[in-house]
Design goal:
Layout lengths: L2 H4 L3 H14 L5 H8 L3 H13 L4 E3 L5 E3 L12 H14 L5 H16 L3 H12 L7 H9 L5 H11 L1 E9 L4 E14 L4 E7 L4 E6 L3 E10 L8 H7 L8 E6 L1 H7 L7 E6 L4 E6 L3 H8 L6 E5 L1 H17 L2
Antiparallel strand pairs: 1-2, 3-4, 3-7, 4-5, 5-6, 8-10, 8-11, 9-10
Helix pairs in contact: 2-4, 3-4, 5-6, 5-7, 12-13
């Protein structure tokens, strides 16, 4: 319960109350009072005001308040801060390699902007001019994405409707493609790529599949039953969110490591800091990106493993040297 919720005026609170009950029905007066940081007496007054204004509010058999299905709020009004949050979110989605995500994000942004008052539009335009969202991977992914259009949406529908998927998947460690039948359980976005979390019938366990390594795929009409008790967040936490396959070990001078640690593009698996050196271990698959990040540290970093990263860093240094001759 934050200070902003406590500072809500009554009109804002009534609007938020409708949204909350439409998305989380069966909340008790005590739940609502705690959520908004007000007394239960205030909650009862607010509920009475909603009823008097025509909101079809009822008390559910299971206990708690709810709004009858089908009720719609008047046209949505956004504050400048709320509009900025939504539109910056669409700007980020427009940088995704998935072409269909970019197109839909653009349309959503236009629809949001069309209902904003002039002063909020001006604020958003000013903010957009002063904000840069430019993930490194988008430029490299543009050509590759042409063959992938619609993949994210097809998989998201398979996840939502619990439909099996057959796919040809490229296994980088073996350099070969394999045919898999999977039960898609969720989609996860990591630092530089989308991943499908799915039960793999070939391996008999829940596995991680990078979308950019799916060569072909087909969503079946056949459904599946989710593993009993499976929770996507708990699954990721149990695995330490370590979905990348390449282990990277870097050694820095202690002084440089204090700066470098902030830019490590993944959760650390292990960290050792002594008077003479600092060693960081993490997992990340895009070695070209790591090499481009590491080159700024020059001789203050040593790539312990993998040798492929050491080579990528050496090749990049050579290209830089050639370009500046």
């Amino acid at each position: 319960m934050g200070n902003e919720e406590r500072r809500m005026n009554r009109t804002e609170r009534l609007f938020a109350l409708v949204l909350l009950l439409q998305n989380k029905p069966n909340m008790s007066s005590r739940d609502l009072a705690e959520h908004f940081g007000v007394s239960r007496r205030t909650v009862f007054r607010d509920l009475r005001a909603l009823t008097e204004s025509g909101v079809p509010l009822t008390y559910a058999d299971e206990g708690g308040y709810e709004i009858l299905e089908g009720y719609q709020l008047p046209p949505l009004m956004l504050t400048a801060r709320e509009a900025a949050t939504l539109l910056m979110g669409t700007e980020f989605m427009k940088l995704q390699s998935e072409a269909s995500l970019r197109a839909d994000a653009d349309q959503v942004g236009l629809k949001i902007r069309s209902v904003l008052p002039r002063e909020v539009k001006d604020y958003i335009d000013s903010l957009r001019e002063k904000t840069v969202l430019d993930p490194y991977w988008i430029h490299a992914a543009q050509e590759e994405a042409k063959a992938d259009e619609g993949r994210w949406y097809r998989l998201s529908e398979a996840v939502a409707r619990e439909r099996k998927v057959i796919m040809e998947y490229f296994v980088g460690s073996r350099g070969e493609s394999t045919r898999r039948t999977v039960d898609p359980l969720g989609l996860v976005y990591y630092v530089d790529h989308w991943n499908l979390i799915a039960f793999d019938h070939l391996r008999g366990e829940v596995r991680n599949f990078r979308l950019d390594r799916i060569e072909t795929m087909h969503v079946l009409a056949e459904g599946f039953t989710r593993p009993e008790g499976f929770d996507l967040v708990r699954h990721l936490e149990a695995r330490g969110v370590r979905q990348s396959s390449t282990e990277i070990v870097l050694q820095f001078s202690p002084e440089v490591y204090r700066r470098a640690k902030q830019g490590i593009p993944a959760r650390l698996d292990e960290e050792t800091v002594t008077v003479d050196a600092a060693t960081a271990t993490f997992r990340f698959d895009n070695l070209e990106y790591v090499a481009a990040w590491l080159i700024r540290f020059g001789t203050e970093v040593n790539v312990v493993k993998p040798p492929e990263l050491r080579q990528a860093l050496a090749d990049l240094a050579m290209r830089v040297a050639d370009a500046n001759r």
